[in-house]
């Protein structure tokens, strides 16, 4: 069974204080690893897809990296508007067309001004 | 492209009543997913449609749950004889064929009292 574990559960940063979120996973065959951002009361918003170990992607203050066992979401000089829950999810090869995602519980990030 | 639309946004119902939610995916997206998210958890897969065909259902989807996607356009999720344990955010997502990731709607929050 595919599993995703995110740490820490919650992280509080001062504005400008860089840090990283961790996502460790076990999956039978990784098709892709996804990062989403979720604001309170809203659906997840897509950030990145990573497909193979060594891959990196960046968007503004966020950078996602992938190894064979985990992914990191690095946040550089965060701002209060980066406060949200960050969700990690994996998609396994299933032999069919169902690209279902298995999510972790998320990391609640709070950035104080 | 107006995104994935879900209605209603909030639903409060008494235990034992039936409820129905609607999802309008992004036009031309032939894949449609339903997920359920409870407080402090990541979304969990419920069911998947490719066009009008329901191709996979999670074991989380008991006999009280039914989903349809007539003509491969909008989708409905019905819960019969609601229970307090059904209280959650129900998320819909859609995807085109060429990409494994997908776009989520803002969800329908169900509260069973």
Give structural notes.
The complex is a heterodimer of chains A (113) and B (113). Helices cover 0% and strands 58% of the residues of chain A. Chain A is an all-beta fold and 113 residues long. In chain A, the strands form two sheets. In chain A, strands 2, 4, 5, 9, 10 and 11 form a six-stranded mixed sheet that branches. Chain A has a five-stranded antiparallel sheet with strand order 1-3-8-7-6, with no helix packed on it. In chain B, strands 2, 4, 5, 6, 9, 10 and 11 form a seven-stranded mixed sheet that branches. A four-stranded antiparallel sheet of chain B has the order 1-3-8-7, with no helix packed on it. Chain B is globular, with a radius of gyration of 13 Å. The mean pLDDT of chain B is 94. The chains are: A mainly beta (113), B mainly beta (113). The A-B interface holds A 4, 31-32, 34, 36, 41-46, 49, 87, 89, 91, 96-106 and B 4, 6, 31, 33, 40-45, 48, 50, 55-56, 91, 93, 95, 100-107, 109.
Helices and strands in order, then pairings?
The complex is a heterodimer of chains A (113) and B (113).
Chain A lengths: L2 E5 L2 E5 L4 E8 L3 E9 L6 E6 L5 E4 L2 E5 L3 E6 L8 E9 L9 E2 L3 E6 L1
Chain B lengths: L4 E3 L2 E4 L5 E6 L6 E7 L6 E7 L2 E5 L7 E4 L6 E5 L8 E8 L7 E2 L3 E5 L1
Parallel strand pairs in B: 2-11
Antiparallel strand pairs in B: 1-3, 3-8, 4-5, 4-9, 5-6, 7-8, 9-10, 9-11
Key terms for this structure?
heterodimer, A: 113 residues, mainly beta, six-stranded mixed β-sheet, five-stranded antiparallel β-sheet, globular, B: 113 residues, seven-stranded mixed β-sheet, four-stranded antiparallel β-sheet, 11 strands, 50% strand
Summarize the structure.
The complex is a heterodimer of chains A (113) and B (113). Chain A has 113 residues and is an all-beta fold.
Oligomer: heterodimer
Helicity range of chain B: under 10%
What is the strand content of chain B? over 45%
What order do the helices and strands of chain A follow?
EEEEEEEEEEE
**Poorly predicted tracts of residues of chain B:** none
Mean pLDDT of chain B: 94
Mean pLDDT of chain A: 95
Number of helices of chain B: 0
């Amino acid at each position: 069974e595919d599993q995703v574990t995110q740490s820490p559960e919650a992280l509080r940063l001062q504005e400008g204080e860089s840090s990283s979120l961790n996502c460790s996973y076990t999956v039978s065959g990784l098709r892709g690893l996804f990062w989403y951002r979720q604001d309170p009361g809203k659906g997840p918003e897509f950030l990145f897809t990573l497909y193979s170990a060594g891959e990196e992607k960046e968007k503004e203050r966020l950078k996602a990296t992938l190894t064979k066992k985990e992914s990191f979401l690095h946040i550089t000089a965060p701002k209060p508007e980066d406060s949200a829950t960050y969700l990690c999810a994996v998609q396994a090869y299933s032999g069919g067309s169902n690209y279902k995602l298995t999510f972790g519980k998320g990391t609640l990030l709070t950035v104080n001004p | 492209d107006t995104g994935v639309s879900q209605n209603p946004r909030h639903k409060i119902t008494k235990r034992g009543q039936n409820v129905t939610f609607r999802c309008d995916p992004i036009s031309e997206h032939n894949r449609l997913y339903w997920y359920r998210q409870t407080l402090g958890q990541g979304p969990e897969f419920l069911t998947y449609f490719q066009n009008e065909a329901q191709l996979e259902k999670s074991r989380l989807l008991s006999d009280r749950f039914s989903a349809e996607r007539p003509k491969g356009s909008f989708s409905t999720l019905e819960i019969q004889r609601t229970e307090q344990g059904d209280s959650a955010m129900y998320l819909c997502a859609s995807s085109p064929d060429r990409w494994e990731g997908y776009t989520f709607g803002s969800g329908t929050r169900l509260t069973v009292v």
